[in-house]
Amino acid sequence: MVYDTETGEYQAVDNGMNLNSAQGAGIQTAQNIAATGAEAVIGANFGPKAVLVLQTASIRMYLCQSGTVAEAVEKFKAGELQELTAANVRSHW
Amino acid sequence: MRIAVASGKGGTGKTTVAVALAVSSGVPAQYVDCDVEEPNGSIFLKPAAGSTETVSVQVPEINEERCTSCGRCARFCRFNALVSLGTPPLVFPELCHSCGGCEIVCPADAITWKDVPVGEVSIGQDTRTGLRVIQGKLKVGSVLAPPVIKAAKAAASNLPLTILDSPPGTSCPVIEAVSGVDYVLLVTEPTPFGLHDLTLAVDTMEELGLPFSVVINRADEGDDRVENYCRENDIHVILRIPHSRRVAEVYSRGGTLVEALPELSRVFREIPGEIEGRLG
Q: Is B64 on the interface with A (CB under 8 A)?
């Protein structure tokens, strides 16, 4: 889900192909995120390869492990989400 | 003759059967441990130290001065080993399958190759039987078993009998282990899991066009479903190994099945000949 914090517009982006990916799902997902033009991403867990791709694309990472997308966006706007600078789980978690 | 010992399910007794076949052979033989993620044949065969060779694969390196950041290599790579974000691509070597496609599609000649070690192959000789023992071993942290299996198979010499101890399952490592062999023995056990995974292994062998027979381990335990499945599908059962406390005791000390049940030695020695007969 891609949400524009300035206009409040949002859009769903299909990332389904990566559900069947044996390896490299995080890498492909990170590429898909970069392709949307997003500047920050909120996720429950970030693996080391995805982190490398997101950092290369200068996309900030925020941790939110429960709740709805709307709640996560509200917490992000309120500055309540922890920013990650490194992976919080190991490869093939 | 090259006989692979495989199974759908793990823990059915592949190594037990493969080692028994190899040590019972009446002809010069070799045992190739293709279960490179957890090779354990040498616990039973105890080969004296021989030679060891490193197995490497080639992965791309990007020449950033030549790279135009066009992203064609990353779009081509179906394994996500290359990622381009309008930048020279990031390389994830552990995902690379060394297909070489990125080099072909690169218009700037910016891709070269470097060797990355993924495992090793050791060759030794069992001191008691004279059996040649080849072991492939995947490096800890590496996920690419097939290149190590391929190297272990390539290290086999041209002896009258080669027994290949396959990894379990039906995925790439198994395909690599069984491809090119003359015959496959599928080891299973008479349990619902044993039957389920046997059917997957049977489907795989049929898809590959490989002739096979089934070995039922602990045959006097469990239920009749494996026997019924084999009968209904006209699948040959070449051997039934009884469940025995004696086998477990000898196994736990690193002994072989034929040491535990010497009466099986002749049965195992005759299996290659029986297979030859089935192959016509």
A: no
Contact status of A63 with chain B (Cβ, < 8 Å): no
Cβ-contact B237, B227 below 8 angstroms: yes
pLDDT in tens, B28-76: 999 999 999 999 999 999 898 789 999 999 999 999 999 999 999 999 9
- For chain B, say whether A36 makes contact (Cβ under 8 Å): no
The count of other CB atoms within 10 Å of the CB of residue B103 is: 16
Return d(Cα B191, Cα B87) in angstroms, integer. Answer: 54
Distance from C-alpha of B35 to C-alpha of B171, rounded to nearest angstrom: 12
Q: What is the pTM of this model?
A: 0.83
Residue A50 lies in a domain: yes
The answer to whether residues A54 and A34 touch, using CB atoms and an 8 Å cutoff, is yes
Q: How far apart are CA B167 and CA B39, in angstroms?
A: 9
- The answer as to whether A3 is a domain residue is no
Q: Is residue A17 part of a domain?
A: no
B143 touches chain A (CB under 8 A): yes
Q: What is each CA distance from A1 to A12, A51, B76, B87, B218, in whole angstroms?
A: 4, 18, 26, 25, 53
Pick from B31, B27, B21: nearest CA to B268 = B21
Residue A16 domain-assigned (yes or no): no
Interface of B with A in 80-109 (CB under 8 A): 80-81, 83, 85, 87, 90, 92, 95
B278/B10 Cα distance (integer angstroms): 27
ipTM over 0.85: no
> What is the set of domains in chain B, with CATH numbers?
2-55+121-279 (3.40.50.300), 64-109 (3.30.70.20)
Query: What is the domain range of residue A75?
Result: 24-93
- Provide CB contacts within 8 A for B243, sequence distance 6+: B218, B219, B220, B221
Q: CATH number of the domain that A77 lies in?
A: 3.30.420.130
The number of distinct structural domains making up chain A is 1
- Each residue's pLDDT tens digit, B166-194: 999 999 999 999 999 999 999 999 999 99
Q: Suggest the residue from A27, A54, A92 to mutate for an interface test with chain B (most B CBs closer than 10 A).
A: A27
Residue B219 is given by DSSP the state T
Contacts of B143 in chain A (CB under 8 A): 23
